[in-house]
Amino acid sequence: MSDPPFDDRDGWIWFDGELKPWREARVHVLTHAMHYASAVFEGQRAYGGTIFALDSHSRRLVRSAELLGFAIPWSVEAISEACYQTLAANGLDDAYVRPIAWRGSEQMGVAASRSRIHLAIACWAWGAYFGDEALERGLRLDISPWRRPAPHTAPTESKAAGLYMICTLAKHRAADRGYDDALMLDWRGQVAEATGANIFFVKDGALHTPTPDCFLNGITRQTVIRLARARGIEVIERAIWPEELEGFEQCFLTGSAAEVTPVGVIGPWRFEVGALARQMMADYRGHVRGHRPNV
């Protein structure tokens, strides 16, 4: 049996300062964000009733909006509190939490300075993003023909809805070709990330990961780097070219939805789901559930 559509579920959504029944949390068809992608969002997970790195996510949401030229009319503290209100209202302990802020329907056209800014928060139970099987066999990634844009062409430090349009295209193309996801290069042809997660490679006991200069420096990415360094594992942030992939031994993705998920295939290249990748999976799982000291 398939899951119900996201507009037809039981539960509550925090919407502009109040909890509304899930099915009543609606916007108008002429909302600016729908036509011109003037929206920013976050994705975060709750573990045992605690939303991991919540204030970091709330701060990034506010910053993302600023980069798109608008101010969210709630403070970081108020946004974080609203996330917990939503989690409690839905009776969830382990959940995915999705805040989103957007320009409303007061003005139609490219300009939207008079549009009201809205904020909504939803949450739902969500297991392994790529499925439990992927945690064992490793993901199969296609190589996307779409590239992450240069920072002088788009607000690449913002978690902006519009920047995910090419991710949807890449993900659909990958699925049509029998893959789980896609590796995206940047405008220079360097390795960037997957469609919704950062990427790490293993070589000779060290972690190599692309420098996030045109894509998000993910909160999960930052956490994994700290966990690795706490274990004495060398982490090298640098430009990585596709032709280097044949020399890497292991690979994994990181993200709030993906958590830490191993990769077994990228295009023609194969990777072992090895000990270091599994160690980072275990360390992250323990860390977010409070079984390891903060780093």
Mean pLDDT: 96
Please report the total strand number as a whole number. Answer: 16
Helix count, DSSP H or I runs of 4 or more residues: 7
Superfamily (CATH H level) name of the largest domain? D-amino Acid Aminotransferase, subunit A, domain 2
* Total domains: 2
CATH architectural designation of the largest domain: Alpha-Beta Barrel
The value of Rg in angstroms is 19 Å
Which word captures the global form?
Answer: globular
Low-confidence stretches: none
Regarding quaternary structure, what we see is: single chain
Strand portion, in percent?
25-35%
Structural class: alpha+beta
Helix content: 25-40%
**Largest sheet features:** 9 strands, mixed
- Secondary-structure element pattern, one letter each: EEHEEEHHEEHEHEEEEHEEEEH
Cα distance, first to last residue? 41 Å
CATH class of the largest domain, named Alpha Beta
Verbal overview:
The protein has 295 residues and is an alpha+beta fold. It folds into two domains: 113 residues, D-amino Acid Aminotransferase, Chain A, domain 1 (2-Layer Sandwich); 157 residues, Alpha-Beta Barrel (D-amino Acid Aminotransferase, Chain A, domain 2), CATH 3.20.10. The chain has seven helices and 16 strands. Strands 8, 9, 10, 11, 12, 13, 14, 15 and 16 form a nine-stranded mixed sheet that branches. The longest helix has 14 residues.
